[in-house]
């Protein structure tokens, strides 16, 4: 489901849980969140909405606030080897990795805005370590591509805790 498709759902069609992939498919590894979501869309995940959130930002605020639980999947520039998959449970913007790829400011601002409005769902972040996202292209590095099954498994684990 894309952001545009979300607007077409009625309240009785929406589930309580959203899995939201964030990233830019045109910037190689930076788009890994979208690649994971595309894989998850082929899975049978009852009671879960799966969405491509693009590069994130404040336009996602109303969407995430309409769910009880949101699992974000995003690339992270951190000290871990490329392809490392970690699950974080952020409560504040400072709880995210120091740098969440190319759209860091908008994504952290999104969480801060939800907090200011007093409507923050239960949040989980599946962070996939990347090393280079500045080159234009649509290919994932071998390490990051190999991490997709692990990221899918981690999302499914989070869904069983629901």
Structural write-up:
The structure is a single chain. By secondary structure, this protein is an alpha/beta fold. The protein has a single domain, classed as HybD-like (Rossmann fold). 30% of the residues lie in helices and 20% in strands. The chain has six helices and five strands; from the N terminus they run H-E-H-E-H-E-E-H-E-H-H. It has helices at 3-6, 32-40, 61-65, 104-116, 142-146, 148-160; strands at 17-21, 48-52, 69-77, 85-88, 122-130. Strands 2-1-3-5-4 form a five-stranded mixed β-sheet. Helix 2 links the parallel strand 1 and strand 2 (48-52). Helix 2 (32-40) crosses helix 6 (148-160). The protein is globular, with a radius of gyration of 14 Å. The two termini are 21 Å apart. The mean pLDDT is 83.
Short description:
The protein has 162 residues and is of the alpha/beta class. The protein has helices at 3-6, 32-40, 61-65, 104-116, 142-146, 148-160; strands at 17-21, 48-52, 69-77, 85-88, 122-130.
């Amino acid at each position: 489901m894309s952001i545009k498709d979300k607007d077409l759902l009625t309240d009785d069609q929406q589930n309580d849980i959203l899995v939201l992939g964030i990233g830019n498919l045109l910037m190689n590894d930076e788009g890994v969140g979208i690649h994971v979501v595309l894989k998850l869309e082929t899975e049978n995940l009852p009671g879960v909405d799966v969405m491509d959130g693009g590069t994130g930002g404040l336009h996602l605020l109303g969407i995430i606030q309409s769910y009880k639980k949101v699992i974000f999947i995003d690339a992270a520039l951190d000290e871990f080897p490329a392809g490392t998959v970690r699950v974080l449970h952020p409560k504040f913007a400072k709880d995210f990795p120091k740098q969440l790829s190319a759209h860091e400011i908008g994504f952290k601002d999104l969480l801060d805005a939800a907090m200011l409005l007093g409507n923050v769902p239960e949040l989980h972040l599946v962070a996939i370590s990347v090393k280079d996202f500045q080159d234009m292209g649509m290919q994932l590095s071998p390490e990051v591509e190999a991490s997709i099954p692990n990221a899918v498994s981690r999302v499914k684990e989070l869904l069983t805790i629901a």
